[in-house]
Structures are given as structure tokens and as C-alpha cells.
Amino acid sequence: MQLKKTYINGIGCISTQKTFDTVFLEEAVHNHDENVLKIVPPIYKDFISPAAARRMAKGVKNGIVASAIAMKDANIENVDAIITGTGLGCIEDSEKFLKNILDNNEEFLTPTSFIQSTHNTVGAQIALLQQCKGYNFTYVNGAVSFESALIDAKMQIEEDEAQSVLVGGVDENGDYTTALFKLSGRIKPDNQQPYNLLDSDTSGAVYGEGASFFVLENERKKTTYAEILDVTILNTLEENEVEAETLSFLKANNLEISDIDALVLGFDGNVDFENYYRNLGENSFANTPQLYYKHLSGEYDTASAFALWMAAKVLKTQEIPEIIKVNSVEKLAYKTILLYNQLNGKNHSFTLISK
Amino acid sequence: MNKGVAITGMGIISSIGNSVEENYISLIENKIGVTRIENISTVHANIIKVGEIKKTNDELVNELKLTEDNNFSRTAMIGTIAAKQAVENAGITSINEFRTGLISATSVGGMDMTEKHYYDYFTHPELVKYITCHDGGDVADKIAEELGLKGIVTTISTACSSAANAIMLGARLIKTGKLDRVIVGGTDGLAKFTINGFKTLMILSDDYNKPFDNNRKGLNLGEAAAYLVLESDEVVAKQNKKVLARVSGYGNANDAFHQTASSENGDGAYLAMKKAFEVSGLKPSQIDYINVHGTATPNNDLSEGRAIKRIYEDEKVPDFSSTKPFTGHTLAAAAAIEAVYSVLAIQNSVVYPNLNFETPMEEFDLKPQTSLKNKNIEHVLSNSFGFGGNCSTLIFSKCN
Questions:
Q1: In the prediction, which pLDDT does B308 show?
Q2: 3-state SS, residue B290
Q3: Fold annotation for B5-238
Q4: Residue A158's domain spans which residues?
Q5: pLDDT at residue number A2
Q6: Which CATH architecture has domain B246-397?
Q7: Considering chain B, what is the average pLDDT of its residues?
Q8: Is A224 among the domain residues?
Q9: Using CB atoms, which residue from B42, B128, B158 is nearest to A138?
Q10: Domain finish residue from A162, A184, A217
Q11: Quick check: ipTM above 0.95?
Q12: Domain limits, chain B
């Protein structure tokens, strides 16, 4: 049986930049002053009734808006499956419910925040709104939460289990959790401005949040951005194994380094783990245009979904905004893009897309 | 009929036993694990009953020989115990010899540690190590590390159907040839967070849970972990592996009705079962035993019962029972422990009793099997449904 191919036919992104009602990052800003970036909110009432929106978690709202934008972009009204990735789910509601338990000695609790705290709330709410009774999975595995969803979605399409899949990555910041992440060193400490990224010499990352959704279908359409050639994840890799792993991933897809027109790297300013990216960029891919994005999106478990949104945009517009360039290498045309991401040396992902 | 994916190993720890054998003996000797809570201090201790593993965290640390500076949550510890058993049971000595993955499931990850230390992190530097174990993926990460596994590792969290979905994904990864071998299952330790969550939803029973009884009052929570090893036919042939049973069917659908309640007609459950039959190529009449989700909440049992009636139409519904009176509802681990029980039902030709049942529900004429029954079992259907309308069905078949 010939495997069906997977195309990105619609995209929607709510992020810490203005990524809606814009062409492609023309209004993007590299914020050096904050160690936690907040999303630029869309006009929710254009998508969700204000009464319903009031009861919704931030992640749910952003997920609904990003998926609605993606569906409209792909010009479709329903999908066969909804697959979501999220590191921490609706963490604000988890915080709220837990604090109520602790502060009130397990009394006077209401279920709303408990219900929303369930990791699959975003996927479930989108299904409820769209009345989509199809396959609905949610992955929660740190930095590969989104790629897990992507692998599943691609498998659904390849095996003809679904013809269209809505797939997305969504995470939100919660105040207490961010404070804990500063304490544990995951987020850079306060008062260390300027927060640089490529030339950072400190540990931790500048954090962010967002929701990026994609409509994947088994046929090329007018709206097509890219074909997803391959996605793979790996729980652990040593610094010195990344290069060989990358090349074997390319080889499995019958590609060579020279076939890659741009490499998207997940640099997050954490000096302890940046060699994972730097080695690749300075060796095998030294002559390849390299892009980065976490200075715009911030670091979070599903930030790599923002990267896929960005790579899809590059293929469609055939332009690379200055603000995302790591080096000055350019190509006449951008056909094939490789994305590599990891978080603190764990949960590595390789994603390959082509025009 | 579809041959299905081979199951070659199983491991489990629950309130009714610390191994596959102990769990089986409890099931056939009516030894229940639902008791008063001991390991968590909660104001509800005298009201609720839970399926608790009677080991303290210190005992688990010792059992796993973890170092003093470990940051394992309870969920990760019981998960590691079950996963190690499964790998050993499958006779795996070199974990990365084939392309091996781990698909885990959990509902709240390391919440048991988060809730214990939440306000102490800023004043107790020695506790800071536990911050990262909150993450749902931390559990799979730790299990993989303990197994020395390097490969595809991910976690599914779709509330109470999570482990069914982990098993489903694992089976698909084997079928499509993306992996040669995969460890699949789920783990959830008891936590104040979930106890209070279910309490606010008013679906916790203050008595022993009675699935499919007209007077059922709700569920008992439980904690457990179970993992299964799935292997490709090539690996099974090459290593002359014993196949315990096969995953022959699976289906996931969404009820798209309400965030926490199931629709009256059980649309999601019906669709999940229908898909599982399509994948397996089996007819409903070929099922010998249904291990129902049967949480004993008024809503679940009605919805699930109606969905089963819709699947069977005018046909006779096969013997069915819920094993949750034994274990409590173990959330993201439920479908994994019930997968182990389903395989044991096939291997030992038994239908487990649905304990505590007295009065049939007035809405339909469904009566669960209430005593242990011996009969040949070729195919078991197992249901698991979660919040967010997430409905999953697995079918396990005898390996002939």
C-alpha cells in the first residue's frame, strides 16, 4: 500500500509576538527586558462568546483561536481527528485548585478549576465546539509533546485512518509555576537584564507561552504550506551524538546536508545546553542558513510548534525575516527545512518539511 | 480476522498485589484492595475508601534502590516497578537491541510531590529537586532511564482513558513498523489533588463502589501502575518468544458532549467500540467477556450500558464485569491494569466477578457477572472513558 502524504494546509498561531493579523513577523520584537514573556492576545470575542470565554482557561482560549485560524486558513470546517501536545496543560487552573486545597484545608472547593486542569482540556474543548467525535489524543511529554502529536497525526494520515487532522501545541504560563521555575533554574533569574539569547552566558531560559495549530491533510491544495516528510523523537542524546543522529535522520529520508535549505534551531539562551545546537551549526551545517525563534516565542514545552509555524511560513513566503537569522547564509529558494529541538539535553526532536 | 500485535510481557502493582500473580490470586479469591487511606493525610480520610498500595514512599525508594538524592514521585516509582516487571517478564535482557519505545500514561504526573511541598520550596532548598517531577513527561523519562531505554519515549494524558490510548499508540507503532518493540501502560499515584477533584464533582462513594447497580453512589479512587510489552512478529519469531495474547482491536472516539459527563446514549463509547471491532475484524458476538469501564458513577454506568446495548442491538450481551470494586478507579493506569486482567482472563479462562452488585439498573436489563466463572475466552473487550469525552476500547485476543 502506498502511504498517503501529509500536507500542512492551514496554520494558526497565538504567541508572545503578534502572529495573527500580520504577514510574517514584521512587527516582531526581541524583548531583552523580561525573563517571562506574555502572549499578545487576539480579540477573543471574534472567536468565542464573551460569556463562554470568561469560564475558559487561557490555554483553552488560545487553543480555540489558533485552531479556528488554522481551519479558516485551510478552508475547511471539520476534521477527522484532533491531536494536541502540551507540557503542563492549563497550569493556571492546576495552581488555583491546588492552592485552594492547601489554603482551605480541602474544604469549600468548586470543581471548575479541577476540570480545566486536566491535560486534555484543550483538545476536548475544541472537539466539543466543532462537534468532532473522531480520534482525540493529548500528549504530555516535555519538549516532545508537540512532536508526539505530529508523529501520531502523520501516522493517522499515512494509514488512511484520517484524511484531515487538527494538530497543535499549547502551553500557558502560571504565576506560581514561573516562580518555581526561577527557583529551579529553568527560567533565568530576575534582574539580569539584558536577557540575550545567542550570546547568553547564563543558565536557564527566557520563558514564554502560546498556541500553534495546524491543519494536516492527505492532499496538496491551494493553501498548502509544506509537506511533512518525517518527524522523529528521542528521549536522550549526548552532545556529541547529535550530529550523527541528525545525519542518519537525513539519510533515512534520502537527503544530504546540501539538500537542507534552512536549519531551525531551538537555542534558548541556556548556556549549559547550547552546544547541542552550536555543534550542529558550526560543523555540518556551517554553510546552511540557520534560524532561531525562542527569543521571540520564549522557551516552553511546545515552543517547537511555533518553530514549525515559522518554517511553514518561510516555505510559503520564500522569505526569512532578519530577526530570526542566526547566520548570514542565504539561499535563492527555500525548499526543504530541518528543525531540531531539545530541552535541557532531553526530549530531542527532528522534523523535516518540504515545499 | 486481523492477527493483532503480540503481548510478550506484563507487569503490575496495585492495591490487590505487587505482581501479576498476586493480582490474579486476588481477583479469583475476591480479595479487594479498597480500604481507608493511610499514606496521604487528608480531611476526607474517614469518609472515603481508596484502592491504596500499602507501601510508603520510603519503602518504594528502598525497593527500587534509589539514591538519597533521587526526585522520584510516587507515580514514577510505582510506574518503574511495573515497567521493570514487564520487561523482565518478556525476557528482555538487552533493552536497545531492537528499536524499542516507551509509551506511558499518567493523569497528574508528579502531583503527589508538588502538593506535598508546594509552599515549602522557597524555604527548603533540599526540596527544590522535586519541582521538575511535576511534569507529566517526567514519569516516562525516569522509567526510560531506569530501563536504560534510548528511543521514542512519550506520554499520553487523556484522563481516565490514558493507558488505553498508550496501548493503542504502541500497537500502531508496531503495526506500521516504526518500532520493533514497545513498552506501553500507565501509572497514577493517589494524590490529594485528584481526591479533592473527584470529591467536588460529587462522584466519590463513601461506600464500596457498586458498578452497574441501581443504587450505585460513585467511585472509589485507586492507585496503580501496569505496563505491557508489545513486540513485532519478526522479533517474536526471531527470539522464539512466548506470546501471552494479542492486541487485536482498538478505537478512540470523542463524545463531544460535556467536559466531565458522558452523553446519555454513550455516543463516544459506542463509536470507540465500533472502531475497535472494525480494526479487529471481529463481530460483537465473538466477544466472550467485556471488562467494562464501570466506575460505578451514576453517569458512567448508564452511558456505557446504553452504548453496549446499542452495539449488541438484539443480540445477547456477553458476560461482563467491572474490576473496579477490587482496585478502585486508578485513573490513567486503569486501562493498563485492566489490560493485564484481560490477558489473565484469556490465559486462565475466567470471567471475574463484578463485586458488590445487588440490584439491576432500572434503565436496562444488563446484569453483570457476579461470581467467578470459568469458560474458554478467545476475545476480551475492555472499555476506558475519560474526561473531555475521551472514549477508548481495546480488544485482546487469544494467541492461537
A1: 98
A2: strand
A3: Peroxisomal Thiolase; Chain A, domain 1 (3.40.47)
A4: 6-217
A5: 81
A6: 3-Layer(aba) Sandwich (3.40)
A7: 97
A8: no
A9: B158
A10: A217
A11: yes
A12: 5-238, 246-397
**A223 assigned to some structural domain:** no
Instruction: Locate the chain A residue with the closest alpha carbon to B136.
Output: A140
Distance of alpha carbon B105 from alpha carbon A139, whole angstroms: 9
Residue-wise pLDDT for A273-315, tens only, equals 999 999 999 999 999 999 999 999 999 999 999 999 999 999 9
Name the A residues in 97-126 with CB < 8 Å from any B CB.
97-99, 101-102, 105-107, 109-111, 114-115, 117-121, 123-125
Give yes or no: residues A260 and A201 share one domain: no
**Three-state SS for B219?**
strand
| A59-113 per-position pLDDT tens digit | 999 999 999 999 999 999 999 999 999 999 999 999 999 999 999 999 999 999 9
User: How many contiguous H segments (helices) and E segments (strands) does chain B have?
Assistant: 12, 15
Measured between beta carbons, the chain B residues lying within 8 angstroms of A141 are: 136-137, 140-141, 153-155
Residues of A in contact with B182 (CB under 8 A): none
Give the H/E segment covering residue B115: helix B111-117
Domain C-terminal end among A187, A217, A247? A217
Same fold, B5-238 and B246-397: yes
pLDDT band for position B259 (50/70/90)?
Answer: confident
Query: Which residues of chain A lie closer than 8 angstroms to B200, CB-CB?
Result: 109-111, 114
Summarize pLDDT for A164-174 with one digit per residue, the tens.
999 999 999 99
Rounded to two decimals, the pTM is 0.98
Would you give the distance in Å from CA B164 to the centre of its chain?
Answer: 7
Kindly report, residue by residue over B357-376, the tens digit of the pLDDT. 999 999 999 999 999 999 99
Structurally, chain A folds into a number of domains equal to 2
In chain B, which ranges are E strands? 5-13, 34-35, 50-51, 100-105, 153-156, 181-188, 221-222, 224-231, 245-254, 289-291, 319-321, 350-351, 373-374, 379-386, 390-397
A225 in a domain, yes or no? Answer: no
Nearest to A132 among B107, B254, B386 (CB): B254
